[in-house]
Amino acid sequence: MGTWVRSIAEILIGGIEAGSVYILIAAGLSLLYGVTKIFNYSYGSLLTLGGYFAWVLIFNFAGIHYGIGIVVVLPVMFFLGMGIEKLIVFPLRRKAEWELNVVIATLGLALIFNSLILVVFGPLTKTLPPLIEGNMKIGGCILSNYRWAVLGITIAVMIILWIFLTKTKLGMAMRAVAQDSVGGHIVGINTHRLFGYTFGISTVLAGLGGIFLGSTYFLSPEGGWLFFVKAFIIVALGGIGSLQGALIAAIILGVIESSVCFLIGAVWVTPAWFLVLIIILIIRPKGLFGIR
Amino acid sequence: MVWRPLDKKNLVFIMGIGILLCILPTFVRSGFILHIFIMTFILSAVVAAWDLIVGYAGIFSFGQIAFFTIGAYGSAITSMQFGISPWIGIILGGISAAVVGLIIGIPCLKLKGLYVALVTFTLHLSLTAFIYLGKPIGTGGSHSLTGIPALQIGSYVFTIMNRVPIYYAALALSSVVIFVVYKIIHSSFGMAFTALRDAENFSKSIGINAYKYKIIVFGISSMLAGIMGGFYSHYVGLISHNLVGLDLIILLLVALIIGGLGRFPGSVVATYIIVFLNEYLRPLEEYRAIILGIIVIASIILLPGGIGDGIKILANKLTKKIGVKQEAQ
Amino acid sequence: MLEIKNLSTYYDEFRAISDISLTVEDGEFIAIIGPNGHGKSTFLKTICGLLRPKTGSVLFAGKEVVGLPTYKIVEMGLVYVAEERHLFPEMTVLENLTLGAYNSCARKFQAENMEFVFNLFPRLRERKKQVVSTLSGGESRMVAIGRGLMSNAKAIAIDEPSFGLAPNLRIDVFNRIKEINKKGITIILVEQTVAEAMHLIDRFYLMEDGKIVFQGNEKEALSSEHVKQAFLGI
Fold first, then answer.
1. What residue numbers bound the domain in which A51 lies?
2. Are C74 and A188 in contact (CB < 8 Å)?
3. In the list A48, A94, B208, C6, which could disulfide-bond B203, CB 3.0-4.6 Å?
């Protein structure tokens, strides 16, 4: 009996740990697609880039604490995101077939980013050190302090995001444009600038998620693709347009991943995600809380 | 913008190229160069079938290489485990790819484009895991699958010792496949798609059922990709999960894009260019992908119609120079 | 206030409005009537910046507006109230109205404009916290008009506000629009018929096939059989 409970507890905790990092990258993607209706194929590369930037800061400037590294990387990611929107997305949006063209252009960008990473850092994987060392013991399970820190930071970031979206004018404008973009024009929102900010925020979330993923797992030049797909499956399950949906879905899928890994084996994890996706699309394409 | 079908002068141009390709082995002896041409034939057929669904039917699929690989493994396994002739194996490979395509397509094609993109991309990424897991049925697991029987006609075996016969076989097969794609594009079937693509609401109002057509085209395209995959596996004799790594799909994606979506035969021509470019860039290693990425972005911003449009413009300019009268359209 | 010259807007090859020229003075209440699908909405969307014309010019308060993004035109004081409303469905009445005051000039006057809107449409005050997707057709139209008012506009272009409403509600809508006009705000109204409200409106235009075929006041309108039929919906 005791081992049963222990196993379930381990699965749940593992799931929440995995889920908490997924929350960040899912939120970034959900926000971006919800507001701009743009599918940014370089999202995976951006999250990897965030991780590598942090790596550069920590290992090349010895003595920089990990936390400071994060704080420096985030604004860089923000401006990178805005830059992408301005230079690549904006010129394309005015022409026909922009949806497809933006997908292609961001794909091209992903190629460039991934190969730049390969050129600069080499093909071997790298890991980031954990934020906090040490473990805790609760009822027979060993939990690392680091995972708690990640969970804590994620919750804090989500709260900040929530306050931003509901209490600030810009945040409300983002939600408004996500719900009706023509309405956004009608009330005089400068959607060009708004898209820039949205890209920026989305990239920050990606970068932060990438940093955490880098210390939880590892960094590799092409590793971003898998996380990109996972982020999207989470958004699909949660429902496009719903940030709360994405958060809940992240936890659910984190737990599913943890269970599959624990009960069946790590090899089955990717097929499991694929299966979940097909099932969602067959049973409930709108997702759990989808608006459209 | 309406894309007019190929007219007579373009066809003459293509005939010319075809003849050149046929006589090529008489003055090219290098096995290596012949190999590149063979790969180009195979891959251009895959890309043509891909253009059919992305450029014409408007389905953002990333599954083409996955289907290619399913066909490759399907064909290899059936001939190795069950001793079936490779020719039949190729067809079985095509069918298994089509079956997977339909299983995925039926739920997804009802939904918005980005879902298809996501599902097919996920399929591509998870295929490696499926190959590992498929060890019991003969996929070779994490190792390459070797010893795939070569094609043979009667007692003649198409080995890689002499690449010339397989060169012609590849040229013939890919020409057939590309011809099939061409025929579909210009059938009433294909016209319905162009109508759907250019004027969706109008077409729906006169009763064209997009979903049914999409399913059919998706199935056909995956089958064609699977067939080329099967042929590939019997040609090289060795396949591994690297097929669904990232190199091949990125390469063909670039070809598809710079060829111009829905501008047949732009993507075919682009494949030739890209495959050869890729070989020349090989010494540059990692910088290769950066260059490809820049090509993609530059092409989509500067010339969204790709090489397909470029050919059209060029062909028009040439015929004007020679003073050939424009055929009444 | 508004000077429109030779305006033509196309949808691909199809010319929706051709060579429209008209002028609206400060504080006027004008109406553009005409059958459905003949270009009235296209016209409004073009002058408010939601569509780009192929030829022509639109001068608002002396400045050329063609080619400007919508938000700049809103800042200048010209606002569009759409037939489809385009409200933010998951947000409350209050949030929708607050967003109407998004542009910087409007924020200063947010409180007074909000008060005016609630006085004009008391029903909305009751339903302040209600999510907009749950409102009735008439109520959501009120929110759309209210939202337009919140931008502190000097001129409002309203697209078929009374469509599908019962006759007594239609009169109500026109009366309230007249209230807005009394405040000094220029109104450009587009409708299929205005039988109930002809006495409220200063000048009329009739648009058919994307062209202006008549312009004049109430008396002139009623003296032409053809125009009378169009306006009164007979």
1. 2-283
2. yes
3. B208
Token pair of C42 as six digits: 């296209």
Per-residue model confidence (pLDDT) at position C11: 80
* Mean per-residue pLDDT over chain C, rounded: 86
Q: Is residue A56 part of a domain?
A: yes
CATH architecture of C1-68+187-234: 3-Layer(aba) Sandwich (3.40)
% of chain A beyond a pLDDT of 90: 28
- pLDDT-derived band at A135, boundaries 50, 70, 90: low
CB C215 within 8 A of CB C23: no
Hey, is A170 helix, strand or coil?
Answer: helix
Provide the 10 A C-beta neighbour count for residue C19: 14
Average of per-residue pLDDT across B67-93 = 90
Tell me, yes or no, if A116 comes closer than 8 A to chain B by beta carbon. Answer: yes
For the domain that residue A19 is a member of, what is the CATH number?
A: 1.10.3470
Closest chain A residue to the Cα of C75, Cα to Cα: A188
Residue B321, class by beta-carbon neighbours within 10 Å (0-12 exposed, 13-18 middle, 19+ buried)?
A: exposed
Residues of A in contact with B257 (CB under 8 A): 104
Q: Which chains share 3+ C-beta pairs under 8 angstroms with A?
A: B, C
* pLDDT, tens digit, 9 for 90 and up, residues C10-37: 887 788 888 888 888 888 899 988 888 7
CA distances to A161, C101, C107 from C110, in Å: 26, 6, 5
Identify which of A109-113, B16-20, B69-73, C171-175 has the greatest average pLDDT: B69-73
User: What is the distance between the alpha carbons of residues B58 and B55, in angstroms, rounded to a whole number?
Assistant: 6
The count of structural domains within chain A is 1
A9 domain-assigned: yes
Q: Which residues are C8's β-sheet partners? A: C55
Question: Where along chain C do its domains lie?
Answer: 1-68+187-234
Say what the pLDDT of residue B40 is.
92
Q: Which residues neighbour C194 within 8 Å (Cβ) at sequence distance 6 or greater?
A: C31, C33, C174, C201, C204, C231
Rounded Cα distance, A130 and B273, in Å: 47
Q: For tokens 């409180």, name the residue.
A: C111
A236: left (phi over 0), alpha (psi -120 to 50) or beta: alpha
Q: Which of A268, A281, A282, A283 is the best substitution to test chain B (most B C-beta atoms within 10 A)?
A: A281
Residue B122 has pLDDT above 60, yes or no: yes
Q: What would the DSSP string read from start to end of B176-220?
A: HHHHHHHHHHHSHHHHHHHHHHH-HHHHHHTT--HHHHHHHHHHH
> ipTM value of the model?
0.87
Q: How far is CA C122 from the centre of its chain?
A: 21
Residue A291 identity (one-letter amino acid): I
